[in-house]
Amino acid sequence: MDLSPLYVSLKVAFSATAVTVLFGIPAGWYVFKIKRFKGLIDGVFTLPMVLPPTVVGFFLLTIFGRNSLIGSFLLRFDISVVFTWIGAVVASTVVAFPLMYRTVRGAFEQFDINMIYAARTLGIAEFKIFYKVVIPNVLPSIVAGTVLSFARALGEFGATMMLAGNIPGKTQTIALSIYTAVQAGDKAKAYNWVLIICTMSFTSMILINFWNRAQEKRTAKRGDI
Amino acid sequence: MSLYVNIKKVMGNFTLEVEFSANNEITALLGASGCGKSMTLKCIAGIETPDEGTIVLDGRVLFDSEQKINLSPQKRKVGYLFQNYALFPNMTVEENIGIGVISGKHERKEAVEEKIKIFYLEGLEKKRPHQLSGGQQQRVALARIMASEPDIIMLDEPFCALDSYLKWQLEQKIMDSLSGFQGTVLLVSHNRNEVYRFSKTVAVISDGRVETVSEKKSLFAAPKKLSAALLTGCKNISRVEKLAEHTLRAVDWDLELHTEKGLSDEIKYVGIRAHYLKYTEREDLHNVMTCEVAKVIENPFSYIIMLKNKSGKDDNSQIRWEIDKDLWRDISVKDSPIRIIFKEEDLLLLE
After folding, report:
1. Contacting residues of A for B130, CB less than 8 Å apart
2. Is the reported ipTM for this assembly greater than 0.85?
């Protein structure tokens, strides 16, 4: 069996998750802190979650197409987004981003604002407050957001199909290869990939539960003196 | 070393407009909840920005709306003890205390060790905040503030979250630890007893305004404003109608009273503290009221008797009288009606 869909899927999902984490945390922090246009910016950031993936893909195609401003600019550096694995990463990132952003923003909103105020009056610089006080205290939510984003990126179908296409060995992820196999009537192949993706998703969920349990134990242990 | 505050901030239909100064001592801001005490502290700390005004600390301008000066909280050197202490749960006691120390690693270690000693925290260095009792958490918060070397310390309702049976001891411990501090201390509280125990000067805040600033003894002995009388615990207050230079009618009690001091036109209320009312058998004296007992409430060491003017109207307000248990036992068995005297020197004349 050709294992390239597994390889493509993992490459795309891991890259997309990394980018999502990188942008999702600051985005959550930013929207949490701003006062004006909060609703508007939140709406824009959440949109990919509520739009049909094909619509997201359509927008991305418009933005990154060879004739578009960004697309032609990127082509000068020999970077092509459409019909490449980079396109699959872009599509997965955009679709997974709202999950990360919303989880993290929620955690910031739950966070005791007095801790930030106290840190400020203690003379701690804003950046240090962020990574020494805020981030460690919202870490469980960051982990949860990361896992959700990864799962979403791994299962991405619609937007990827629109932007990156379904090129075996290049952009064909597991989700796309299942679709192709069913279309071609290759049930055995479809079953195989379904089994693999179920195992992967299930394992990641088990792992996250395991981690959560360990966290709870740690706090419980700290709790009793 | 001193603090001068003169700020205005409008929040919806609430306007905070406070002006006061505090010297190098403990100054209390006394006020009911929601009167703007905490907001005042937040403005001083730079957490909130006033609409206009100035804040000057030891000659340093922290905020000046006209000169467009607004120092960041980091630069103000203001220590703020939050009601919930706001300790960092991810750090140990040591780390919490050390995080605000600016100097090098070695000095930080020394500063932390010193604060641990002063605030009775030995043995707790490696613990995390949720492993500590409320009192310990509070001392860590204070130690953390002191380690950052502030010019002023502001305590926001510092004792209201402590268990009452330990409160006394913890209060004393905290104030002991603070005694080494050279700068201004602002204590925000709605509890008149705390304020009396710990501060020298008291600013009474009511509805977003500073009503009076006075030395605590004179404030409790002779509050000049209605809000000050209420906040210092005066339970009996009536509107007045001036009859003559030294005579007034307490409208809510339907009672004529003679006063020691002359009545100015500003006097709108008269008050008397519940334990200053005295029993008398004589009816012929000034300022005596013949009463009906409306209710008797038993306290551990005293009775609170709610009284009504016998010859007054039905809608007169009740008068609260606090009396020792022994005295009340003697009085309550007598046949004659209860008479209480409002001594001239104990009357509070209020604006």
Report:
1. 219, 222-223
2. no
